[in-house]
Specification:
Helix content: 25-40%
Number of domains: 3
Radius of gyration: 28 Å
Shape: globular
Strand order of the largest sheet: 13-12-11-14-15
Number of helices: 17
Structural class: alpha+beta
Length: 470
């Protein structure tokens, strides 16, 4: 069995229970069991020797003649065995189930961190901060560019090891949303403008005229060209966002590049300059070999609480009209609305990830007291949302096919080219009981059960089994 790349004294304490108790970041990073050990190599050789084939007979004979160590060395030389401490493909496939799970402690820490943020905001008074709630209507992911053995990383907040959206990412999206509104390309600018209208007299050279600032410069900070020395910080500060995930796991999504043969083919002979390189010899076509690549996401329905604080003293000094009557809040709310609807947060927003929908908030007088654990009342645009989760109303799959996975005792459903998320734990046992002894026996024997009517809920490409519709 693949192991984590940790010292032996630590590996001895890595029982399944201890691994589940570790944070998602630890399971995804330091404790990720995807590395080939010596025991893995021996087990693989024994399995190869036990196979009823000509190759199995040859390896069995070599074991008797040479011994295990010599056979392992020869198979490594021939490339038929993974090297010591190389990534184990079988371990990589099974690791996704380990890293995606969320324990009760993980969810408690998410709520505790949100409560801490709420308490800190409360000390600032209502004039100094803006708080907005949103619900993810599509999977959310970030940090895919981080280096990781499974090829796609994920951003976790240290030292808590929980998924998060960095405040710097929120600021970047909001600046772009404000810029698009100010340019007027979406019609109503909602009060935003790129016009340099504010004077900043405190320049490095007192003899120069005052520096002209726009709304974006005042609120987000002045973007300066390389080599320029006059910088100005913005009045706003964007806090990290801790998603409040409903459910017991993160979501494992899959992207499947179909044109790897086209993108990875070599150009030229390696000795020519870039201008002299030969054109690509293959064109992209549909007869390539797709390579499914898994990556972690926060599932739809997660609650995001955005908190933005404002240095009102600085704002009054640079742009008094934005501080008057908390005008900056109205501008920022318009930018958030635009970002929720058209830009999205995190990675892969161009294909729909990170889309959100604002949640109607409680009145300002009691918002802080009801923030943590409040019901989400807004849902996705398709279908009528349920009060608790924001999911569309249930629908019925007629003629679905059920499949059973004995390794984790989960059940999944297929209809056409659609496949549901695995149903596990107590919910899977309840579904087996509802099917009856005969049909449950068919599933447990490894056969598919066809022509089953199911109640399901679908949100984007995530499909949940609710139960039988019979």
């Amino acid at each position: 069995m693949p192991v984590a790349a940790v010292p032996d004294y630590l590996r001895r304490h890595l029982s399944e229970a201890n691994l589940r108790a570790a944070s998602p970041a630890l399971r995804f990073g330091l404790l990720l069991p995807v590395w080939t050990s010596r025991d893995d190599q021996k087990t693989e050789v024994k399995n190869m020797a036990a196979a009823k084939s000509k190759k199995g007979q040859q390896i069995s004979a070599l074991l008797q003649r040479w011994g295990m160590d010599e056979v392992i060395a020869q198979l490594l030389k021939d490339g038929q065995l993974p090297g010591l401490w190389e990534k184990n493909d079988h371990g990589a496939r099974s690791a996704w189930k380990t890293v995606a799970q969320l324990s009760a402690g993980d969810r408690d820490r998410m709520r505790a961190l949100l409560q801490r943020q709420e308490s800190l905001c409360r000390t600032l008074g209502r004039a100094g901060y803006l708080r907005l709630e949103a619900q993810a209507v599509a999977p959310f992911t970030t940090g895919l560019g981080n280096e990781h053995p499974l090829e796609n990383g994920f951003a976790f907040l240290n030292p808590y090891g929980l998924p998060y959206l960095p405040g710097s990412g929120v600021k970047g999206v909001l600046r772009q949303a404000a810029r698009e509104l100010a340019q007027g390309i979406w019609g109503d600018p909602k009060g935003w403008s790129e016009e340099p209208r504010y004077d900043w007299p405190l320049r490095r050279d007192p003899e120069q005229p005052p520096l002209k600032l726009s709304m974006l410069d005042v609120l987000f900070g002045r973007e300066t060209a390389e080599g320029e020395q006059e910088h100005l910080r913005g009045a706003l500060a964007f806090w990290d966002v801790i998603p409040q995930i409903k459910g017991e796991s993160l979501l494992v999504e899959i992207m499947t590049p179909h044109y790897t043969h086209y993108y990875q083919q070599k150009q030229g002979n390696g000795e020519q300059s870039s201008r002299e390189q030969q054109p690509r010899v293959q064109s992209p076509h549909d007869s390539g070999q797709p390579n499914p690549i898994c990556f972690l996401t926060v599932p739809p329905g997660a609650r995001f609480v955005f908190c933005v604080t404002c240095d009102t003293t600085h704002l009054k000094r640079t742009a008094p009209d934005l501080a008057e009557g908390d005008r900056w809040k109205g501008l920022l709310e318009a930018a958030f609305e635009h970002a929720f609807r058209w830009l999205g947060f995190g990675a892969k927003t161009a294909v729909g990830y990170g889309a959100m929908k604002a949640v109607q908030q409680a009145p300002a007088t009691d918002r802080m007291e009801t923030a943590v654990g409040a019901k989400i009342s807004a849902g996705p645009s398709r279908g009528r949302p349920t009060e608790q989760t924001g999911w569309p109303a249930e629908t019925v799959w007629q003629g679905a096919t059920l499949k059973y996975n004995p390794s984790d005792q989960s059940i999944s459903a297929v209809r056409g080219n659609l496949r549901s998320a695995p149903l596990g734990g107590k919910a899977a046992q309840e579904l087996l009981q509802a099917l009856g002894e005969q049909r449950a026996g068919i599933l447990r024997s490894g056969k598919s059960l066809e022509n089953v009517s199911l109640r399901i809920q679908q949100q984007g490409n995530l499909i949940k089994i609710l139960g039988l519709a019979e």
